[in-house]
Amino acid sequence: MAEPIRVVVTGAAGQIAYSLLYMIARGEVFGKDQPIILHLLDIPPMVGVLEGVVMELADCALPLLVEVKPTTDPAEGFKDVSAAFLVGAMPRKEGMERKDLLSANVKIFRTQGQALDKFAKKDVKVLVVGNPANTNALVCSSYAPSIPRENFSAMTRLDQNRATSQIAAKLGVPISAVNNIIIWGNHSSTQYPDAGQGKVTVGGAVKSVVEAVNDTSYLQGSFVETVQKRGAAVIAARKMSSAMSAAKAACDHMHDWWNGTAPGQFVSMGVFSDGSYDSPKDVIFSFPVEIKNKQWKIVSGLTLSDFAKTKLSVTGKELQEEKNEALSVLDSNVSNL
Ligand code: NAI
């Protein structure tokens, strides 16, 4: 058996974590031979709930789970971790302006960035799930200068999974037959779900999704809108936000980062933009990436339609605005943003 690795989940008493912790501890992310020490970080009012989660994890009798450490202290939570799922964030409350929400989250992700910088392993992989995920990841990284910025990412995998599922249903094929559906930009309603590079395997032959669907008005219309508004649709139906599917997507994201992607297959991750595809530089922008040896690389050379370019520009603009708003509430001494 390998040496155990330490993995932290923040927001550990919340609803996404309730599914996520189980999946991680079962070996679905880091492998069935990798023992895990789970750090559960939440805030002091949630200590009682955390105790219940610890009891349930014990009662699952999971062979890979070596130890569980519940804590409300970021120093303890981030100590020696190899992977961090940053799920906890300040939710939007009634009457809260976007700037107030951003400001509350900047404080949380500043503290967590500082704690990662001081206490985590230098090769820690950080996945930000808590919203606004892209900008929270940007803030977190800026307070952890000793950790490479490539190690910070934001989750758009749930959007990718939703989009892939829509295409599979439209074509009447299994999910596994559909690949390379991309989410571009922000994890928000401006994201651009793009089937333009998608591939589908039908009867052993690989076809482009565009050709197989053969319906531009669907691919540019209700497909895009359904994916963009799926989170709101789940809230309307369930009266609570997506949790099981968000946890699954977080596992998929970290699994592929850890283990790599298959040749020719790409996945969507919010990562530091290098300006590819005319996106704004130095924001956390969701791109198609390929992963090898735990390093992601933005897929280059894809041809985008004029429609796609317009959509990328809208979501890029929103990310730049979010970044400017975050900067306005950040300490003036943070210069590497
Ligand atoms: P939840 O409200 O059930 O749980 C959040 C937990 O975070 C709570 O236990 C809370 O006490 C904790 N928390 C708050 N501040 C914290 C801090 N400073 N340190 C540690 N823990 C802290 O929320 P849920 O449903 O689990 O969602 C969590 C976040 O994930 C939300 O921001 C939500 O918007 C976001 N989300 C993102 C998705 C994505 O695709 N990127 C998809 C679905 C949700």
From TrEMBL:
<feature type="binding site">
    <location>
        <position position="105"/>
    </location>
    <ligand>
        <name>NAD(+)</name>
    </ligand>
</feature>
<dbReference type="InterPro" id="IPR001236">
    <property type="entry name" value="Lactate/malate_DH_N"/>
</dbReference>
<dbReference type="GO" id="GO:0006099">
    <property type="term" value="P:tricarboxylic acid cycle"/>
</dbReference>
<keyword id="KW-0520">NAD</keyword>
<dbReference type="InterPro" id="IPR011274">
    <property type="entry name" value="Malate_DH_NAD-dep_euk"/>
</dbReference>
<feature type="binding site">
    <location>
        <position position="98"/>
    </location>
    <ligand>
        <name>substrate</name>
    </ligand>
</feature>
<dbReference type="InterPro" id="IPR010945">
    <property type="entry name" value="Malate_DH_type2"/>
</dbReference>
<feature type="binding site">
    <location>
        <position position="42"/>
    </location>
    <ligand>
        <name>NAD(+)</name>
    </ligand>
</feature>
<keyword id="KW-0560">Oxidoreductase</keyword>
<feature type="domain" description="Lactate/malate dehydrogenase N-terminal">
    <location>
        <begin position="6"/>
        <end position="152"/>
    </location>
</feature>
<feature type="binding site">
    <location>
        <position position="92"/>
    </location>
    <ligand>
        <name>substrate</name>
    </ligand>
</feature>
<feature type="binding site">
    <location>
        <position position="131"/>
    </location>
    <ligand>
        <name>substrate</name>
    </ligand>
</feature>
<protein>
    <recommendedName>
        <fullName>Malate dehydrogenase</fullName>
        <ecNumber>1.1.1.37</ecNumber>
    </recommendedName>
</protein>
<dbReference type="GO" id="GO:0006108">
    <property type="term" value="P:malate metabolic process"/>
</dbReference>
<dbReference type="InterPro" id="IPR001252">
    <property type="entry name" value="Malate_DH_AS"/>
</dbReference>
<dbReference type="Pfam" id="PF00056">
    <property type="entry name" value="Ldh_1_N"/>
</dbReference>
<feature type="domain" description="Lactate/malate dehydrogenase C-terminal">
    <location>
        <begin position="156"/>
        <end position="327"/>
    </location>
</feature>
<dbReference type="InterPro" id="IPR036291">
    <property type="entry name" value="NAD(P)-bd_dom_sf"/>
</dbReference>
<feature type="binding site">
    <location>
        <begin position="129"/>
        <end position="131"/>
    </location>
    <ligand>
        <name>NAD(+)</name>
    </ligand>
</feature>
<keyword id="KW-0816">Tricarboxylic acid cycle</keyword>
<dbReference type="InterPro" id="IPR022383">
    <property type="entry name" value="Lactate/malate_DH_C"/>
</dbReference>
<comment type="similarity">
    <text>Belongs to the LDH/MDH superfamily. MDH type 2 family.</text>
</comment>
<dbReference type="InterPro" id="IPR015955">
    <property type="entry name" value="Lactate_DH/Glyco_Ohase_4_C"/>
</dbReference>
<feature type="active site" description="Proton acceptor">
    <location>
        <position position="187"/>
    </location>
</feature>
<dbReference type="Pfam" id="PF02866">
    <property type="entry name" value="Ldh_1_C"/>
</dbReference>
<dbReference type="GO" id="GO:0030060">
    <property type="term" value="F:L-malate dehydrogenase (NAD+) activity"/>
</dbReference>
<feature type="binding site">
    <location>
        <position position="162"/>
    </location>
    <ligand>
        <name>substrate</name>
    </ligand>
</feature>
<dbReference type="InterPro" id="IPR001557">
    <property type="entry name" value="L-lactate/malate_DH"/>
</dbReference>
